[in-house]
Input
Amino acid sequence: MRKQLLEQPNHVTDVAAVDMDKMLTADPGIYILDVRSKDEFNNQSKMMVHLNIGHIKNAVNIPSAELHNKLGELDAYKN
Output
């Protein structure tokens, strides 16, 4: 699965929880970018309570609405 993700870096891919667990176990240094709103990331969404599902440990939250302004912050994680 990780190889597939790396081969298509500009492609959005859904990853099953079991596959993500395997990838994180094999490589705990994987950079996880969560693009949900800050409220959703912190389980505090009032508008969409069903999205209060937590987040992956060590994931970084940059909401999609802010992503275009913060792309430079991601340069350090390119490989």
Observations:
- The first strand starts at residue 33 and ends at 34.
- The beta strands are 33-34, 60-61.
- The mean pLDDT is 78.
- The two ends are 17 Å apart (CA to CA).
